[in-house]
UniProtKB/TrEMBL annotation:
Protein name, UniProt field: Cytochrome c oxidase assembly protein COX16 homolog, mitochondrial
GO biological process per UniProt: mitochondrial respiratory chain complex IV assembly
Composition skew (Basic and acidic residues), residue ranges: 87-100
Record bears the keyword Membrane: yes
Tagged with keyword Transmembrane: yes
Stretches the record annotates as Disordered: 78-107
Pfam families from the UniProt entry: COX16
Membrane topology field: Single-pass membrane protein
Family: Belongs to the COX16 family.
Source organism of this protein record: Phoxinus phoxinus
Amino acid sequence: MWNQVRKLQKNRTVKYGIPMLLLVVGGSFGLREFTQIRYDAQKIKKKLDPALEARVNTQKQSVILEEEYEKVKDLDLGGWQNIRGPRPWEDSRESQDQQRSRLNKGT
């Protein structure tokens, strides 16, 4: 009996392989539990404020979209010009003044 136990203790598979397998399999179950805690905590944090939740209600969503469309409908979206921002080595006030003077000359 004791001879068999000593043979198993000297066996490399029993000495190194089985603990490694237990570590890998046990670690995956442990990590699953810890990550589940993280996602549960995120769900709790993401709950909406009741006032905001009432406003985002899907039944009222079409009414909100129609209101926004009425606001945007009257805007003039065709009369804009693309003005580039200053490069990192340029002075922002100086480049803005130059662009304003070019726009005023053109108008």
